[in-house]
Amino acid sequence: MKISVFCGVSVDGFLARPDHTLDFLDTGGQEPHGFEEFYGSVDVVVIGRKTLEVVLTFGGWSYGNKPVVVLSSGMLNFSSVKGGVVEQMSGEPAEIVAKLQDRGFKHAYVDGGITIQRFLVAGLVDRMVITRVPLLIGAGIPLFGPVPRDISLRHVATRCYKGDLVQSEYELDRDPHNTDGGWLKAV
After folding, report:
1. What range(s) does the Bacterial bifunctional deaminase-reductase C-terminal domain occupy (predicted)?
2. Residue 169: which of 31, 27, 46, 5 has the closest Cα?
3. Looking at 82-152, which runs of residues are DSSP E strands?
4. Cβ 183 vs Cβ 149: under 8 Å
5. What beta strand segments (E) does the chain contain?
6. What are phi and psi of 10, to 5 degrees?
7. CB-based contacts of 161-165 (< 8 A; 24+ apart in sequence)
8. Residues 117, 145 contacting (CB under 8 angstroms)
9. CATH code for the part of the protein at 34-172
């Protein structure tokens, strides 16, 4: 199963402000930067509980009919989700991936700070597309956290967009012989 991250961050590496707001990501008048094509390539979305809480403040369901898996060990109430296909799972990232593969999913979009960090540490992310917004916010929810070892990235492309957005795409190598998703090589 392919696992991808597609996100926007401030230049200082934050996905959201400390209060989880994303206002700085809207630079106004943005030209398309590949998200629609990317989203069309995934067949399941994996997010954490806090990301779900933020998404629900947007006033509508952002994911359409695409299945969304919310990771949480506590009970969640999805009654406010209108028109979406949403379910809850818990477990380690490798367990989540195994469950999704067993159900026939082929490409997952992983989103949300802690969720992205957990999948990265588990060695399960294959591709990251990171769009940097030209703003320093000084504090917030970081894209990256501590890692137990260096994680090697292979640069695929960097693109510039109106509003001084800079998008970089990376591939990550997974060891196909390691069943727990470990990295092919550590730097």
Report:
1. 3-159
2. 5
3. 85-89, 107-111, 127-133, 141-142
4. yes
5. 2-10, 14-16, 44-48, 67-71, 85-89, 107-111, 127-133, 141-142, 153-161, 165-172
6. -70, 165
7. 161/30, 161/31, 161/33, 161/131, 162/29, 162/30, 162/31, 163/27, 163/28, 163/29, 163/30, 163/133, 163/134, 164/27, 164/134, 165/27, 165/30, 165/33, 165/131, 165/132, 165/133, 165/134
8. yes
9. 3.40.430.10
| Cβ-Cβ contacts under 8 Å for 77 (sequence gap 6 or more) | none
- Beta-strand pair 107-111/2-10: parallel
Summarised one tens digit per residue, pLDDT across range 79-128 is 888 888 999 999 999 999 999 999 999 999 999 999 999 999 999 999 99
Instruction: Report pLDDT digits (tens) over 30-72.
Output: 667 888 999 999 999 999 999 998 988 888 888 989 999 999 9
Q: Which residues pair with 144 in a beta bridge?
A: none
Question: For the purposes of burial, counting CB atoms within 10 Å of the CB of 83, is it exposed (0-12), middle (13-18) or buried (19 or more)?
Answer: exposed
Query: Do 38 and 55 meet the contact criterion of CB atoms below 8 Å apart?
Result: no
List the chain domain ranges: 34-172
Contact criterion met (CB below 8 Å) for 182 and 141: no
Nearby residues of 59 by Cβ (< 8 Å), 6 or more positions away:
none
Distance of alpha carbon 175 from alpha carbon 94, whole angstroms: 13
